[in-house]
Automatic annotation (TrEMBL):
Pfam families: DUF5127, GtaA_6_Hairpin. Gene3D superfamilies: 1.50.10.10. This is DUF1793-domain-containing protein. The lineage of its organism: Eukaryota, Fungi, Dikarya, Basidiomycota, Agaricomycotina. Residues 795-808 have a biased composition (Low complexity). Keywords: Membrane, Signal, Transmembrane, Transmembrane helix. Residues 343-690 form the Glutaminase A central domain. Residues 1-19 form the signal peptide. The chain crosses the membrane at residues 726-747. Residues 794-819 are annotated as: Disordered. Residues 102-334 form the Glutaminase A N-terminal domain.
Amino acid sequence: MISLLVVIVLSFLSNFAVAQTPQTFWPSGVPLLVKSPYLNAWLPTRNNSNPLPPGVWPNFWTGSRILGWAGFVRVDGANYFWLGQTGPGNATVLTNTVITPTRSIFTVQAGPLELNITFFSPIEPGDLALQSFPFAYYYIDLASTDGQSHSVQLYSDISGEWASNNDASLLQWNTISNAVAVYHQFSRSASQSMQEVNNIAEDGTMYIGMAMRPGLTWQTGTDVDLRNLFNATGTLQNQQDVRFRPISKDGKDWPVFAIAVDLGTVQTISQPVVWTIGLVRDPSVTVNEGGNMTQRSSLYWTRWPKIDDGISNFLQDFPQAQQRANNLDSKIMNQALATPNTADLVSLGLRQVMAASEITVSKMSNGTFNMSDIGIFTKDVGFSRRTNPVEVAYASLPAILYLNYSIAKFVLKPILEFHSRHLSSVSFAMSDLGSSFPVSVPVISPSEIRGVEDTGSMLIMVLAHAMYSGDGSLIAQHYPLLKKWADYLVGNVFGPAGQRTSDASGVSTGQDAVNLAIKGIIGVKAMSKISEAFNQSQDAEQYNNHTTDLFTQWRAQAFQGGHLVSSFKDPSLGGVIYNLYADKLLRLNLVDDSVYQGQAAFYQDLVAKSSGKAGIPLVTGGETGRVDWSMLAAASVNNTITRNSMITLVHDHAGNNSTQGGLGFASTFVVETGRTTGPASASLGSMFSILALDLPSQNIIIPPPASEAPNEQIASSHRGLSKGSIAGIVIGLLILLAFVVAGFLFWRRRRLTRESPGALENATFEPFSLTGPENVGRVPVFSGDSRMLTPVHPPTSTVFSSFPPSSSGDETSRRETEMLRTDVQELRREMERMRLAVEPPPEY
Ligand SMILES: *[C@@H]1O[C@H](CO)[C@@H](O)[C@H](O)[C@H]1NC(C)=O
Ligand SMILES: *[C@@H]1O[C@H](CO)[C@@H](O)[C@H](O)[C@H]1NC(C)=O
Ligand SMILES: *[C@@H]1O[C@H](CO)[C@@H](O)[C@H](O)[C@H]1NC(C)=O
Ligand SMILES: *[C@@H]1O[C@H](CO)[C@@H](O)[C@H](O)[C@H]1NC(C)=O
Ligand SMILES: *[C@@H]1O[C@H](CO)[C@@H](O)[C@H](O)[C@H]1NC(C)=O
Ligand SMILES: *[C@@H]1O[C@H](CO)[C@@H](O)[C@H](O)[C@H]1NC(C)=O
Ligand SMILES: *[C@@H]1O[C@H](CO)[C@@H](O)[C@H](O)[C@H]1NC(C)=O
Ligand SMILES: *[C@@H]1O[C@H](CO)[C@@H](O)[C@H](O)[C@H]1NC(C)=O
Ligand SMILES: *[C@@H]1O[C@H](CO)[C@@H](O)[C@H](O)[C@H]1NC(C)=O
Ligand SMILES: *[C@@H]1O[C@H](CO)[C@@H](O)[C@H](O)[C@H]1NC(C)=O
Ligand SMILES: *[C@@H]1O[C@H](CO)[C@@H](O)[C@H](O)[C@H]1NC(C)=O
Ligand SMILES: *[C@@H]1O[C@H](CO)[C@@H](O)[C@H](O)[C@H]1NC(C)=O
């Protein structure tokens, strides 16, 4: 009986063309076009929506910016609207909503016609350049329900509201019409580069387009005029309104950009009618490192140097894109269906995970793109403008690994490279790369308040990427940094007191210490595996020994009364120990079964106590719950009933349309009221926590360091030179480089000693100018960063355990000699490794 049901559901999913099952999942917002941090449109589907969807204005993920976007269908001269609040004619009647990982499909009835309106934001895990293309499709299939043919015209427009947060902003626009396509483009006349206001980009150029086809007409003009014209005639006049004006004046006179299609008299259509909407920005991210500005463009520019070619390609590629989406949706749904209620969650969450990021590449000084420098920059969508927030990457990792483990490399690269370049002397990982997205101004916070959290996350993510992709390149490039981080964890997992999980965690300091400590310990164990992969057996053994010690201590204090407590200090507190998930994901088997079993029983009890509430709190008795972390915790539970009941709670909350908050799937909620914060965050990638546990792991291959050839990831990886001849060149260059580097290091150490004889901690940082009284001490803040005056984290009295408070000149020079020696040894080891690596193995 059940298997029959599964077969029916599966066949439904594979072709989307079987009788509709009644809708059972009712989120308070449905993703429409969710493709980038700035192209992120949702349909409000709150129970109190007025009027009812689909006749509601779409909104930005914040829920506080209407995105004017209208849709009409005219049947035998009678007009109906299927998107947007008003218009001439009656509303269509919404009969069903289906949400898949790539699409939201609304079925509506317009008189004698049934329409399926599909909003399709492609997810392209096999092609990052395509994934970075900031366009999405929406398309309509239709059929008459009375067996008769009807005269049918379709219409859609968007308003200037998409191009700026401020309706007074002056717009300019143009329409391109050629043999391939018709598209309107518009932007602010005074585009504000790299600016956003209330999360809306002020430097975007908007597009709405359609592939050329019979019956297509277009027009730009005032909303009322064009919609009434369509209502009256079913066509537009292929004319541009050249009176450039603001988005609106006094709530009137909105210029809109419309495309309509006259289908003639039909019963059904064989191909859908397809529009596209896009939001183009270039550069998409700027990185400001100590005043050195690097502008980064979205990766698709490397394929389509002219946006017009990109748009034409996107429109022509629709059938293939739809096929790829069918395949991806079926794959995800088939696997998600194995766990009750998970399919809805992965479907609602995935688009916003991908849309929170810009996939970027930098240019070389001669203007050519540097294909060795691809990096993903994620916005802390839902909470702040932080760039590459580490805790969000950690929570999103299950989805990223699931889609394509290689993508994780580009998520981690910008963070690792920044630390290796500029913070080689700081012993812990930073929380992010600044807090003014899309401008990244990385700053090291003066406090270690999240040192264990972010350092643990980074080591866990680096190993996860390596073991699932088999790609050891990040390990090879950053081994010394990773080791330093692990050493920090060894000394700090149980303190200093006051370390915290994340800014948005909703728990007070120390309440989450058990969860935090186990993340740090798993991080140390991950380092042991990393060392093993890097053939540093001594290190591997050492970190393994540390793990054993730390875990023994942790278990003795954390496992009390048959389950894990949350706080070492207050055994009465229990909670969601979601970092146990990393033990499962990395297949470490560090934590023993009895802990998992005790914790499962405890969660079952929490679930029972949460009846009538929006979910389980992070800490018993606490106000805040997190669906992202609950989902990680659920996946760590080895008890199907408990796991499923935890997922059901998340599902019921996510599918509750009376919930208030932003429109995107939100990560955080108030346990009593269900009110949400953190909508549209990438951290909802944690909905894939169970799916990711089934991924096959691979042997980690450490590449020769010189193999980081241009185009490594995107183009074919064949290299022209044989390994042998490269070896010769490389070794020659390396010897030269070794002398240069050694000489430079020596010179630098000496110079720093002379310039700041008494302050070792200044000498250990890269020599950025540290100006301003607030930077006295050991806080490296880049000059030119306006946030210097308002640090993200409040300074605390926490002492950097890794730096001596201050030292005499003698001590300084002794330490420097030591450091120099370490550097040279490091270099020698590196050379040895490269020699081993480039020497062709026997089978060549
Ligand atoms: C809200 O969800 C309920 C089911 O819980 C459903 O009947 C109702 O139609 C939904 N409201 C909207 C506006 O979608
Ligand atoms: C829309 O068209 C209908 C039928 O042609 C007409 O009766 C109605 O007045 C029109 N509405 C507007 C606002 O033009
Ligand atoms: C529009 O709605 C009105 C009021 O419900 C109804 O009388 C009219 O027949 C509808 N028109 C069409 C074309 O469905
Ligand atoms: C994963 O991404 C990489 C890099 O973009 C690409 O080369 C590879 O083909 C992708 N793999 C799959 C299975 O899509
Ligand atoms: C709309 O989609 C449903 C499946 O969700 C299908 O049964 C129906 O035939 C489709 N209708 C049209 C007009 O394509
Ligand atoms: C800025 O770039 C210059 C030239 O590439 C380099 O010498 C300098 O160290 C860089 N400064 C920082 C803070 O990265
Ligand atoms: C720019 O420099 C790179 C590497 O130095 C080279 O491969 C490329 O051909 C150059 N491009 C142009 C346009 O000169
Ligand atoms: C290209 O990027 C890589 C990785 O960041 C960097 O090491 C290299 O110097 C860059 N090449 C050029 C020519 O800028
Ligand atoms: C690992 O290190 C050992 C000892 O240094 C060496 O004998 C062995 O060849 C190395 N293995 C690899 C795969 O590099
Ligand atoms: C690890 O622990 C074992 C057993 O206690 C000990 O023999 C070994 O020397 C330790 N290794 C390191 C590197 O500390
Ligand atoms: C659950 O525990 C049992 C017994 O310890 C083990 O065989 C099984 O693999 C575990 N399942 C999961 C999903 O971890
Ligand atoms: C939706 O609203 C209706 C009418 O206001 C109410 O009866 C119903 O309980 C609400 N449903 C939910 C899930 O809030």
